[in-house]
Design goal:
The complex is a heterodimer of chains A (112) and B (114). Chain A is mainly β and 112 residues long. In chain A, the strands form 2 sheets. In chain A, strands 2, 4, 5, 9, 10 and 11 form a 6-stranded mixed beta sheet that branches. Chain A has a 5-stranded antiparallel beta sheet with strand order 1-3-8-7-6, with no helix packed on it. In chain A, a hairpin with a 6-residue loop joins strand 4 and strand 5. The model of chain A has no long low-confidence stretch (mean pLDDT 95). Chain B is mainly β. Chain B contains no helices and 11 strands. The chains are: A mainly beta (112), B mainly beta (114). Chains A and B meet through strand 4 and strand 5 of A and strand 9 and strand 10 of B.
């Protein structure tokens, strides 16, 4: 069974710091990886997708992918209290399916 | 990103009644739509995958006769919770794919069965 693992947290960081969220996956052949942000009581919102090894930056967000280590991370620079949410890692399995496997999510708290 | 609209956002119904939830892709044609359920402080649980014009594929343990899914067009999928019971109370979320790897979520529907 394909698995996506995340530390449930909560991860608490001070405002202005870098928040680092991590995710590991079991399917070595996976090619597509996503980070979603979910505020309490709301549905997930896609914030980053990454398909190649290395870093991908979008504003204050950087996704990092290391397929050899089966590891994907999300860095949030200059964290703001409004970044406080649960961050879900999602991985598409190998074989061409578009059905993602979600991790359980990491709760991030950014305190002023 | 693509816009997915889900309606209603909240619904309260009596035990034994049925509730229909709509999921629409507003600015793209969704070849595939996914239905999830999420309990408090839990992760998303995939219920079923629906493709336009064909029967939905249900995940193991999900009763297809209780959770009726219809994907009649490329922009609309519906989930009907039939004969709802209090244990069906949950947050139901749809997502839609554009044919590529990315999927976009609707706003979710908070169902409370009393």
């Amino acid at each position: 069974q394909k698995e996506v693992e995340q530390n449930s947290g909560p991860l608490s960081v001070p405002e202005g710091a870098i928040a680092s969220l991590n995710c590991t996956y079991s399917d070595r052949g996976s090619q597509s990886f996503f980070w979603y942000r979910q505020y309490s009581g709301k549905s997930p919102e896609l914030i980053m997708s990454i398909y190649s090894n290395g870093d991908k930056e979008d504003g204050r967000f950087t996704a990092q992918l290391n397929k050899a280590s089966q590891y994907v991370s999300l860095l949030i620079r200059d964290s703001q209290p409004s970044d406080s949410a649960t961050y879900l890692c999602a991985v598409l399995p190998s074989g061409g399916s578009y059905i993602p496997t979600f991790g359980r999510g990491t709760s991030l708290i950014v305190h002023p | 990103g693509a816009v997915v609209s889900q309606h209603p956002s909240r619904v309260i119904c009596k035990s034994g009644t049925s509730v229909k939830i709509e999921c629409r892709s507003l600015d793209f044609q969704a070849t595939t739509m996914f239905w999830y359920r999420q309990f408090p402080k839990q992760s998303l649980m995939l219920m079923a995958t629906s493709n336009e014009g064909s029967k939905a594929t249900y995940e193991q343990g999900v009763e297809k006769d209780k959770f009726l899914i219809n994907h009649a067009s490329l922009t609309l999928s519906t989930l009907t919770v039939t004969s709802a019971h209090p244990e069906d109370s949950s947050f139901y979320i749809c997502s839609a794919g554009t044919g590529g790897p990315e999927a976009f979520f609707g706003q979710g529907t908070r169902l409370t069965v009393v």
